[in-house]
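Notes from hallway chat w/ T.B., transcribed later so I don't forget. T.B. wanted the structure written out for a chain they're using in a teaching module, and asked if we could keep both sequence and structure tokens in one place. Agreed to drop them here.
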Amino acid sequence: MTNALARDSAQLLDEYERRVWHPTMEEHALAEDLAHMHWCPGSFRAALREVHPAVRTGRLVDVLDPATTVLESREAVGGGAADAAVLALRRLIDVLAADSH
């Protein structure tokens, strides 16, 4: 799951930068919310529970779904692949949040 999160985050960022993937306004808004919060399993889970219904049909949610589990793993074990996966997701979220203005 950790490797999938890293891979899928990098792939979606690449598709966004190449203008192949066009996130919805709601996905941009979610990214902006996530960019400004502390990333721990509980806060991430809460943020995902409250997403706009339009986000549920988009591609970003597919990348975000395993993130809570990876964040839990990162807290339990720390470092390594989990850190790399979270960093890849953070890059994606930060780029989307910056472009939401």
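Follow-up for T.B.: Residues 2-98 form one domain. Might be a good example for the class.
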